[in-house]
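User: My advisor, Dr. K., asked me to get a structural model of this assembly before our group meeting. I'm new to this, so sorry if the format is off. These are the inputs:
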Amino acid sequence: MNTTATQEPDTRAADAVAEISIEQKETEGLSQGQIVRRRFFRHRGALIAMIVLALIIIMAFTSVGVDLWGLRIPGWWTYRWDEIAPKVNNGVPTLSLFPPQFGEHPFGQDEVGRDIFAVVMRGAQQSLMVMAIAGVVATVIGVVIGAIAGYYGKVTDSVLMRFTDIVITIPLIVIGAVLGKTFGSLGAAVLGVVIGVFAWTTMARLVRGEFLTLREREFVDAARVSGARDRRIIFRHILPNAVGVIVVNATLLMAGAILLESALSYLGFGVQPPDTSLGKIVSDNQAAFSTRPWLFWWPGIFIIAIALCVNFIGDGLRDAFDPRQKKMPSERAMRRAGRATGPVVPILDTTDPDGPHTVTVPMEAVYTGDVVNYHDERPEEPGDAQHEPLDPER
Amino acid sequence: MASFIIRRLIASIFVLFAATFLMYVLTTLAGDPLEELRQSSAPNKAELMEARTKLLNLDVPPPLRYFLWLGGIFRGDFGVSVQGQPVNILLGNAIASTLTLVTTATVVAIVLGLTVGIISALRQYSGFDYGVTLLAFLFFSLPIFWVAVLLKQYGAIRLNDWLANPTIAIPVIVVISLLSGVLWMSLLGGKVRRRLIVFGLATVASVAVLFYLSATEWFADPSIGIVVFSVSALGIAFGITAISTGLRNRRALYASLVVALIGIGLYFPMINYILNGMTLWFFLLLVVLTIVVSGLIGFFMGGADRGPVVRTTAIVGFLVAGLIAMDKYMSYWEVYANSSRVRGRPIATVGASTPGLGGNFWIQGIDLYTHLLLPTIAIVLISFAAYTRYSRASLLEVMNQDYIRTARAKGLTQRTVVVRHAFRNALIPITTIIAFDVGAIIGGAVVTETVFGWTGMGRLFVDGINHVDPNPVMAFFVVTGTLAVLFNLIADLVYAALDPRIKVGS
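Assistant: The format is fine. Below is the predicted structure of the whole assembly, which you can bring to the meeting.
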């Protein structure tokens, strides 16, 4: 915090101006989607997390193949996850970095000889499926309930929010255990739906809060005056403005869902025996920790890797959608920007130079030029204002 | 205010009724309590089924059975389990052990999480901040059962092996010392020169301490001793004063030092006479007495501005007394570790207490702590990460406000700005989140209890579901649901009390 305090006042002013010009440069003539995408890809952790997660998904689904409701597509890995293979090297993992080699059973084998790589891949498939399905179901329910409660208000709002209060009183792991015992045997997809049906409460509250503020805004009035029906206003006009909150919360929800699924499977209330999931592998093999630790390490590492990646992506999205959370560009970048723009014109009041290194730029201030096309879904016309470069003097 | 509380209370009760109804119906739908009897080959199968149907009112359809059950709840009767045991007795034993676990874990997580989050916010974008952020993300993503199994392996089995011969190898000393040097350096911050000095001092000090602990095999028979105790007591007096009122406040400093000196003076009488033959009630009485007496010292030495001084001396008194109690506990450690029940493996992995262990108050206390240690760590790791993130975000948000700039512009010290102006306001959103979390923590304790074999509420719940036994499951839910609703209510009230902008009752 004290790093900038030692600088001369005039450099401070120059920095501040430079920082504003960066701010304008990165937003001029871009749609919100483009800005978010740019900011997201600049978040290195989130980018790496996304690549890793994509690799895990591809690996999980292609290696042992897909086996869904009778549909069987074989994968490229030699062993199936339920196949008992002859033991190699007494089941010790053959994966090694020096010299780099995979060997016959990279993650080792369990006491009967199942290939742990195949088992973990199958478990990861199930866990990922639960995560995705629970995420989608919970997001849809939460958004619809939150949107209706926030938009209509009054009786609708209080009825829906009391309902949310009721559901929120029941801890997810409790309801998951009660229902998972019954529905877990029907497969991972059903378990995902069950989790999703009860995990939407936070999403509904957040979306409602967002709708409460957004519905008072002028563009909603404008839409209403021009004769749009409620459904159109909710889904076309307000919802796209709440997309940041929704997307960020959906990722956090998914990270929670995978941990919940593994905990349920660990307790025996999740995915049931003929099938497997990451939590179940840990639970089945924890007694063998001292003799065969790899049976315990690999599934755990995959749970952590998936949850960590999803959390990082969520963090990146939050930074991308919320300009207040943005980190200030480095001093070198600002100096470069200052040089590039030549003699800088003082434009606006600067942010607190002594404060923490964040820049507070309300969404609207950045967008003042583009109100015409701000979140309008209609195709662009050639004469639209958004093709004009942003005029800093305006 | 009163009408607001009453209205909220009534709404909460209705929410609770609806939630229990929902839960009851779902629980009955989830399985048939007669299933295991149906599959059995007992000759008197039909009579057994008949008896159980009668016992659990299974002939009444679920929505109506709920009201039968609810009637029982109003009479304070949670019904019977499938085996015919009254749930009240099962619940009574379970609540105590779960609440011990959850309360300890929550308090530790809150204290640690707030502290780390605040330091991390004050040193934003420093190495410490990035490290904490990364760790918080990692802890968020940890499955609690996995951590628990790891803790059992490394925290208990390996640690016990090590405690049998507690010497620290030289490379380990070097690595730990370097780490502690880096930690202190990033905590204190400053210019390169200052950082290097801090790093050097911290490293050398850690090497010295660790070497001493290893050479004297301190962990086999730990003790604090009068010298270290005196230095720590004075250090506590200075440290707490510096944070709470600032060292410029001479009255507060002198009052704290007086409290610390009284503590040092009482060390030998306490250890040798007063603390022997302790009971729980006498212990609690001493705790209260300590806080009152040290508060009174602050009151009489505080002068015009009493409030902060009383607060400071009370905290100092509490901590110094805690150190004495800790030394007393330590003096019994060797006896405990070598007792016939524990057999040199003090860190426990299963259950809430060593069966058949006698001993006095202190031995029982050590036994509780060694059993609490691992499950608490498991729960703390995960909720601590969340609290760190929340308190960091909340403090950063406040530090960006105009009134903080005004406070700085008035020339207030960094301490005053952070503690008086920023921290208090940052606490407002954190309280709400913590209150919301309590229900979730009890839910999380289900997994932890299963791994560590605690016979708490989590076990009651898991067993209930496994045996398709609706009444224990509902008893568990009534307790957690009530707690969750209660804490939500408390959160609302605290929120209104902390934030004058929120008008309650309008």
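One thing worth pointing out at the meeting: Strands of chain A lie at 66-68, 71-73.

User: Perfect, thanks a lot.
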